[in-house]
Design brief:
Length: 66
Amino acid sequence: MSIEIWHNPRCSKSRQALALITDAGIEPRVRRYLEDPPSAGELREALEALGLEPWELARMAEPLAK
């Protein structure tokens, strides 16, 4: 199985997710998305694979989202 995690090492949830994956014995490809942002196409593919709409991933309470 091949897993890629879009990771922000400064985010506690991202660190927890990475720990869960590695604790399960899986070595994911780690992509620091702030340094290497996904393309629009990659975002569309990820949303489709997850069955989500863009706003379901966004932090809607953040001032930038308002």
